[in-house]
Amino acid sequence: MGVMRVLILGLIAPAAATNIVSLDELNSALDASGGSKRVAFLTQANYDAVHTVLSSNAEVVICDGNDVAFPYCSSTAAMIGYITDDEGTFLAGLISGLPDATSAPSLNSFSSSVVSLRAMLMAPVYSDETPHGTLSAATSSMDLSLAVDAAIVALQSSGADEKVRQSNMPFEFIAAHTCRIDDPSLYTVPDFGAAQGLLRTTLDDRILKVGALGPYDWGGNDGNYLVSPPVGFYPDWLTEFCKAFNSLKGSDGVRYNSSGNITCERVYQYSSGSVFEDLFDGASFVTEPYYIVDSFYTGTGESCATDQECRQANLESEREYCQNATGGAEGDLTCGHPSSPRFRHFRLSCSTLGVDSTFMTKRGASPSPVPDQDLTVSDAAYTVDGLNAALQAGVNKKVAFLSQANYDAVQTVLDDSVQVIICDGSDATYAECSSTDDMIHHILQGDFAAGLISGLPEAHFDQHLNIFSSTVVSLRSMFMAPSHSTEMVHGTTEPSKSSEDLSLAVDAAVVRLQAEGEDEQAKLNNMPFEFIVIHTCRTTDPSLFIAPNYITATGLLRSALDGKSLKVGALGPYDWGGNDGDYTKDPPVGFYPDWLTAFCEYFNALAGPDGVRYDANGTITCDRVYQPSSSAVFKDLFDGVSYVTEPYYTVDASYTGTGEDCSADSDCRVANLAGGTEVCSTSTCTHPTSPRIRHFRQSCSTVGIDSTFMVAKNFTFTPIDSGDVDEVSGAVLAVACWRLLGALLALLADPCSS
Ligand SMILES: *[C@@H]1O[C@H](CO)[C@@H](O)[C@H](O)[C@H]1NC(C)=O
Ligand SMILES: *[C@@H]1O[C@H](CO)[C@@H](O)[C@H](O)[C@H]1NC(C)=O
Ligand SMILES: *[C@@H]1O[C@H](CO)[C@@H](O)[C@H](O)[C@H]1NC(C)=O
Ligand SMILES: *[C@@H]1O[C@H](CO)[C@@H](O)[C@H](O)[C@H]1NC(C)=O
Ligand SMILES: *[C@@H]1O[C@H](CO)[C@@H](O)[C@H](O)[C@H]1NC(C)=O
Fold first, then answer.
1. Among residues 3, 86, 584, 750, which is most buried (max CB within 10 A)?
2. Cβ(466)–Cβ(382) below 8 Å
3. Which ligand is closest to the CA of 463, given by its number?
4. At CB < 8 A and 24+ separation, what contacts does 672-677 make?
5. d(CA 685, CA 663)
6. Bigger pLDDT: 639 or 27?
């Protein structure tokens, strides 16, 4: 039956049953009276990462050997022992990745819906915001970053990461992209002959130096770097990356390997601090793909005698601090930086992947039967792998999508044998299929094996459909205008319009909102609505996100404080449908409006180190500046008419120009294009389609939005070989699985995500 990645190993749903197979059920069990409420974690940090999605009735046990009641719980194995014992000592436990193959049969496993985003890090170029960045053109990572992004997108769009996963089972990842992968040609590749900086060095020496931790054996199938060559998911991923890098060619058509193969050579260090030191010093050029985005930078850890020997930094002394382990001045001194978000210190590549953590509960002795049926539920079409196995083996291979773009977004996770039906009225056979309802109708009739939508179907379909995550997540954030730089020539040069201080305040408010679970609250108030927690800023200690002082704030933050109005760039006013947001109402209602209301409260409550609250002189209102298109919203950002966008902006989408009226190119905004400005085409200013991340400053990520597969509950996959005993029955419960879904159907059809 092919390879089965059964993410949700549990098979049955009712909250009353012994089998708990989803986060909602786990929370119901924690909220119900009776039964163990203990939920175990390997570290406090693991609990902190998921605490906002877990019922507050959970009795938290940290299995690090220090728990007074459970001193022997200090490993995953011990944790599983307490979950599966006869007493059911622990109701559930959380691990990163999947349980081992021996324990798996006695456990139900399901996603925490909290995803950790990974990327490759590079040294930044010198700027006011990154004074530790490189100064010389020879050490610039600018061209290299273009090539690295192009190689990552080429790898992802070919599905090579999925193939690497399949050859390292069990291994799971979430496709959470900050760079859209449907058209790799949109990513600029510097010409071989003209490449500069670290890319020049790489091409000339035919060695790409990759900063790596270890060599360690990370366990599981992640990667064992103690053997030569290293084996596992991440080593294989880097091999594929290296192939894609070798195959790059710029507009001159010269392949990067044209004067011989470029090898990716690891430069090992035992700590991340030392890996970062190598990046800053040019001893390595880019890190391994497993670096966690929402983590902190704490300095390079170099030995020193005085601050002056340490690296430049945006700190009081303008250098990292030369201190001992306890912050004093005696003994072994090293260069340290107060914990600060990594993304303010490094250049990030396109995201490589998202890593999920998994809750485990005890599986009932015998699988529960389907209510009203005498069958035992089989692990069939309620995971993408289950669907793929069924498509491979079955007669009906039709899967429906509302648009080609929807298919493109998930095509790498679907089996190649899929027969794609686009329900936009264009299909020859199913011309009448042009809406979600039509699609569901065909699914229930058995015409289509499955369908995909963004968000959730209406609640009344729940009894007929199995719904599960596509595992492809779209990341959202608030956008701001960048400051001027050689890479962002369209950025503002006026200090009064700088978003630098504003971005610190926005991030501080976003992190505080998320740490308090206000986003979860907005979700609960707008059900059905789902999102995935996928943070680019860690929420465990919001105090690490420092807001500027009221008195000294500059730029757009100054304007917001003095004018008592934060101008928010918004699309519409539209009614996005579902519970996303109806902005035609006054005040607007739905998830995103509630999110912004909470954001605004946290923004008002911010205070810098001097303790003066932002609303000290009266409440600051968050005032929407509506525009009918994203292009016009972006124009407002660049002009300082709005300061920051709504939280729903898709990170991995494209920028295509401001769309302003023009009669000649010179009427248009400056741009990193041959003519020096955007192009005046049919009287509007346009920019060749280009990734948004190269045009805007992004806030901390706000939410992740998933798309959803639907399969009819009574659908039976008929195997091609009718003698095949492995017939896959689709008869499972809707509540199973990953309900990590969102509802941005309307946004998909909108310029915002085009
Ligand atoms: C470059 O890589 C391609 C694909 O692996 C290969 O076919 C070609 O021979 C390589 N070129 C050189 C000069 O090594
Ligand atoms: C480069 O690698 C490709 C395959 O990876 C191989 O076919 C080719 O011969 C190699 N070229 C050189 C110059 O080593
Ligand atoms: C750090 O320096 C302080 C004096 O400034 C000293 O009291 C302390 O013991 C030192 N700690 C370590 C770990 O060396
Ligand atoms: C509030 O406004 C008053 C008058 O405009 C000013 O004197 C005072 O300094 C302001 N307070 C703060 C905290 O800026
Ligand atoms: C599934 O049930 C629907 C009614 O809910 C029915 O119309 C359809 O024929 C059934 N499909 C199969 C394959 O049994």
1. 750
2. yes
3. 5
4. 672/487, 672/488, 672/489, 672/490
5. 9
6. 639
Over 70: is that where the pLDDT of 615 sits? yes
| Cα 669 to Cα 354: distance, rounded to the nearest angstrom | 36
Q: Among the atoms of ligand 5, which is closest to the Cα of residue 716?
A: 13
Cα–ligand 3 centroid distance for 323 (angstroms): 9
A 10 A CB-CB count for 241 gives 28
Name the DSSP class of 266. Answer: E
* Closest protein CA for atom 6 of ligand 5: 445
Atom 3 in ligand 1: residue holding the nearest Cα: 247
From the CA of 447, the nearest ligand is 5
**Nearest-atom index, ligand 5, CA of 714:** 1
Mean pLDDT of 183-198: 95
pLDDT (tens digit per residue) in 339-367: 999 999 999 999 999 887 777 777 664 44
Q: How far apart are the first and last CA of the chain?
A: 37
Portion of the chain with pLDDT greater than 90, in percent = 59
CB 344 within 8 A of CB 127: no
Ligand 1: atom nearest CA of 259 is: 13
Q: Which residue(s) pair with 224 in the sheet?
A: 217, 231
Ligand nearest to the CA of residue 245, numbered in listed order: 1
Q: Is the pLDDT of residue 33 over 80?
A: yes
Largest CA distance in the chain: 79
Report the separation in Å between the CA atom of 184 and the middle of ligand 1, taken as the mean of its atom positions: 20
Using DSSP, state whether 619 is helix, strand or coil.
Answer: coil
Q: What is the 3-state secondary structure (H, E, C) of 275-344?
A: HHHHHHHCCCCEECCCEECCCEECCCCCECCCHHHCCECCCCCCECEEECCCCCCCCCCEEECCCEEHHH
Length of the chain, please?
A: 754
What is the rounded distance in angstroms from the CA atom of residue 596 to the CA atom of residue 656? 26
> What spacing in Å lies between the alpha carbon of 637 and ligand 4's midpoint?
28
* Centroid of ligand 4 to alpha carbon of 636 (angstroms): 29
Q: Is the pLDDT of residue 742 over 80?
A: no
Q: Can you tell me which atom of ligand 2 is nearest the CA of 261?
A: 1
Please report the atom of ligand 4 found closest to the CA of residue 612. Answer: 13
Distance 308 CA to ligand 3 centre (A): 20
pLDDT (tens digit per residue) in 661-685: 999 999 999 999 999 999 999 999 9
Cα 172 to Cα 96: distance, rounded to the nearest angstrom? 10
List of residues 6+ apart from 664 with CB closer than 8 A:
680
Looking at residue 710, its pLDDT comes to 77
The span from the CA of 63 to the CA of 69, in Å, is 10
pLDDT digits (tens, 9 = 90+) for 240-259: 999 999 999 999 999 999 99
| Pocket probe mutation, ligand 4, options 613, 617, 620, max atoms within 8 Å of Cβ | 617
SS (HEC) of 494-541: CHHHCCHHHHHHHHHHHHHHHHCCHHHHHHHCCCCCCCEEEECCCCCC
Residue type, 593: P
How big is the chain by its Cα radius of gyration, in Å?
26
Q: What spacing in Å lies between the alpha carbon of 223 and ligand 1's midpoint?
A: 27
Number of continuous H segments (helices) and E segments (strands) in the chain = 17, 28
The CB density around residue 88, as the number of other CB atoms within 10 Å, is 15
Name the closest ligand to CA 607. Answer: 4
**Ligand 3 site, residue 328, Cβ cutoff 6 A:** yes
CB within 8 A of 5, min separation 6: which ones? 169, 170, 172, 383, 384, 385
Of 44, 52, 58, the residue nearest 516 (C-alpha): 52
Looking at ligand 5, which residue's alpha carbon is closest to its atom 4? 444
Q: State which ligand 3 atom lies nearest to the alpha carbon of 329.
A: 5
447 lines ligand 5 (CB under 6 A): no
> Where would I find the H helices in 551-663?
555-563, 591-605, 630-639
Structure tokens at 486: 């050689």
User: Would you state the pLDDT for residue 716?
Assistant: 62
